[in-house]
Specification:
Blueprint (H helix, E strand, L loop, with lengths): L3 H6 L9 H22 L4 H24 L1
């Protein structure tokens, strides 16, 4: 018997009405934070990790919308 969670996580989720706007809002807010991090923190491994984790946060937030609405 297929696992429903696996089935959901590994299939294409076509955007539903209103979702592209949510994705854009999430990206725009994350971009604001990325710009702040870039401006106020020194170039460093830690800054790079902050940016990477911010990108991951955007990815997972968008996945939450795509997979669960």
């Amino acid at each position: 018997m297929p696992n429903p969670q696996i089935e959901n996580n590994f299939k294409y989720h076509a955007p539903k009405a209103g979702q592209p706007e949510i994705y854009e809002e999430i990206r725009n807010k994350a971009k604001e934070l990325a710009e702040l991090i870039d401006e106020v923190t020194p170039k460093s491994r830690e800054q790079s990790l902050a940016m990477t984790n911010l990108e991951q946060a955007v990815f997972w937030a968008n996945a939450a919308v795509a997979r669960n609405e």
